[in-house]
Amino acid sequence: MPGSLTIPNVLAGIAGPANVAASLLDANWNQIRDYVNAREIVQDTLANRPAASVAGRVYYATDTGILYADTGSAWTQIALGTLAANLAETLTGLTLSNNGADATNDLDVAVGAASSQDAVIADRNLMSLTTAITKQLDAAWAVGTNQGGRMSAAAIANTTYHVHLIKRVDTGVVDVGLDVSATAPTLPTNYTKFRRIGSILREAGAIVAFSQIGDEFLRLTPVLDVDVTNPGTAAVTRTLSVPIGIPVWALINVFMDQVASNYIVYLSALDQADVAASAAVAPLGQLGTGAAPASAAELAWGGRIRTNTSAQIRSRQSASGAGDIFRIATQGWIDRRGRG
Which domains does the chain have, with CATH numbers? Predict the structure, then answer.
């Protein structure tokens, strides 16, 4: 920290016996010591930072890369953390899984780290979960493992719960909470940083069984979300069994039983233009026949379509007949979890 060091005693200007001048050396050295100590940089983790009390003192948090200055009453950030600047999109580990003891209500989160999702990159903070944690969806949030995880004030419901890594910057404590909001969770008191690390579904009073590898989340039991006969040729919005509140890539299997007519099936995201399916011009389609078959034709396709925040996509067919069948089964979803 900048400052001005004043030496209290100039020995050359002091008259008298030599021992008098020598006795003043202690005062000089003490002044230098106090000046240096007040401006030393202490390096340790944020959790070990002492209470603010000595103005001018500097502390470097080795786990976040942020430099702080002691004002005498509070620590203030004086430099952008190297981790915030260089690892602004960090997301590693933190794999979610159903808890083995209480799969109905509990969620396990593996060790890992993520940067907070502040809109301003300079405000981001690296959050490290150094020990695996279990949170209980059926209980209000409390700090620590095998404790409540639901941050939302509302009673537990069958809906999407977004899983957030959360942090208290003042103490460095990192925990996990679940909330119905993906972008504005109800954080516990004193927790100011968060990052959505995944989203889970609660259906029929239980957390849906799933498996996660990276950004891919698979339902252990796929769901038949669409099963219609003679669906028509107009665009239809289809709701899938994937999280709401965020767009995801829905992983789906599609089946068509073409009986009465030849047709093309086109599946699209709802933010795309509503365009007719065709065998000849864009956008074409994912499956179908360009000419009437000699007998009933059964076709299948598997792929991914991006949903909106209501878990919806669009389907459209070029033709439709009384005996034609259209089905969609949802396998899971791909979730970028806030990465660009």
Answer: 11-84 (no CATH), 86-212 (no CATH), 221-334 (2.60.120)
